[in-house]
Amino acid sequence: MTTATSKTGAGKFIVRAFLVLIGLGVAFFLLLQLIPVNRSNPPMVSEPNWDSPATRDLAKRACFDCHSNETTWPWYSYVAPASWLIAHDVEEGRQRLNFSDWANVRGEARHSGELAESILEGKMPPASYLPTHPQAVLTNTEKQALVDGLRASLAQTDPGGAPVVDNGEENDD
């Protein structure tokens, strides 16, 4: 009898310990939700002078969630720890290239050659983004149309008025 009683007592202890651990895990998860995350969409300041609505539509589909102030925040961007990762990616993307604050975009982000390389080599949009954003998956034809449209658009919108040349140098004409 003592052996059967000790097995039952041990089983109850394991179940209780397991339930306590689950309760602590849930409590910890809920506490994580209290950590604030910036999911703001500041107002648009300026955009490139798009060569066509089709170029803007392709950029919006594939790029705007991270590279504009028009981010669509999905439901899981409100659940930690995913919210932290998404907010970080958007902040970093906006810092590197922001189609909604085009007047303040500087450096290599302004050159269509860098953008073209990222798109055509499949670096952008990143592979980790695509499973949850199937609309951002571009065919090779769409990628090329986006690259061609960005080249044409960026050539029209250099802040100094000079067209941007693909090799990263500005034309002095």
How does this model look, in words?
This protein has six helices and no strands. It has about 170 residues and is an all-alpha fold. The protein has two domains: about 30 residues; about 100 residues, no CATH class. The longest helix has about 30 residues. The C terminus is likely disordered.
Summarize the structure.
This protein has six helices and no strands. By secondary structure, the chain is mainly α. It has two domains: 32 residues; 104 residues, no CATH class.
Q: List the quaternary state of the chains.
A: single chain
If you average the pLDDT, what whole number results? Answer: 85
Which structural class is indicated by helix and strand composition?
Answer: mainly alpha
Task: Report the major sheet.
Answer: none
The parts where pLDDT drops under 50 for at least 5 residues are 160-173
Quickly count the domains: 2
CA-based gyration radius: 25 Å
Number of helices: 6
**Number of E strands:** 0
Query: What is the global morphology?
Result: elongated
N-to-C CA distance: 98 Å
Q: Hey, roughly how much beta strand do the residues contain?
A: under 5%
Helicity level: 40-55%
Topology order in helix (H) and strand (E) letters: HHHHHH
